[in-house]
Amino acid sequence: MNRIFVTATAFALIAGASNAGDLDQSLQPIGALFAPGNYAEFSLGYSMPSVTGVGVNAPTPGKYSGNMANAKVLTGFSIKKSFSDKLDAALIYDQPFGADISYPTGTGYYAAGTSARLNTSSLTGLLKYKVVPNFSVYGGLRYELLDAKANIVTAKGVYTLSVPSSSAFGYVAGIAYEAPEVGRRISLTYNSALNHGTTSNETFAGGPVTSSSTAADMPQSVSLDFQTAISKATQIFGSARWSNWSAFDYSPPVYKKITGGKSLISYPKDIMDYSLGVGHKFTDNWSGAATIGYQPSTGLFTGNLGPTDGNASLGLAAIYTQGKVKITGGVKYIRIGNAQASNTGLLASSNFTGNHAIAVGLKVGYSY
Known about the structure:
Largest sheet: 14 strands, antiparallel, barrel
CATH topology: Porin
Helix content: under 10%
Distance between the termini: 17 Å
Number of helices: 2
Structural class: mainly beta
Number of strands: 22
Low-confidence stretches: 1-8, 16-20
CATH class: Mainly Beta
Shape: globular
Number of domains: 1
Mean pLDDT: 92
Oligomer: single chain
Strand content: over 45%
């Protein structure tokens, strides 16, 4: 049943591209912890989003924004060690949160020239212990680095932000039911919030740099994942994930002052992500998988730094196994939900419609 593990995690390397409306990228994967025996993997993902809008009210009605979402490259690696039939450990690197946006200049759109980037990298150490047959508990620590910068065009002048690298610790805890003889696994995973005390270096309209401490707390989340074989060659798998984005609010003091108390980035509601897929073994060497994903829309106004609202996706993956090596390739199409950006919170300033993203990924795994 080794191939069950491969197909159920085939989309982890391109998962983050479907979350265009929030900062989630990797969805904090822990799948390597459940690989049989000793295992290592490296993954590379590339997403190509297209997010455009047009002004509908003041300040620039009828002006097109141009594509404001930049392509992203994500990398990850994991190494898992089995110490006994009861104890396993894994070390996982991923890039859990991020954003990279820039509005083209020369469009006449009011946010033209605005850009923002946020980078994170995370290293997670996990232990899994089989308490009784079929049931295990797992957990560990996560260490995360974060940095960011922004250049925001406002009616009063240009605002800039630079956030040097900040670190934070969090933890992971979970419980799992595993029946490998029938290709079944159900796991429930909690990821704690990561509390960054960042230094925000701000300037406005060419003025002096103002440095201050600003909290940036990346949200807690809960994930329910399952997979089960429905025949000797076919299995289904899926997940439901809650992320506490309503608790996220990044509000540097200078930005709050010049905007009358507004947050630079915040989210009105928590976010749910759902996925469901099917995998099939065609030959001893080849398997394939297909998945659908869904993130409900909120129906609320957004800001120009994240003008999307929900999404739906379709993904395909192919897995080639030769001896101890597994190679997975995947592609995903994401229909990004329509959104209305607003400067006041009372009236839409622009509509973002008909947007999408394409993501591709490659993963190489090795059992040793």
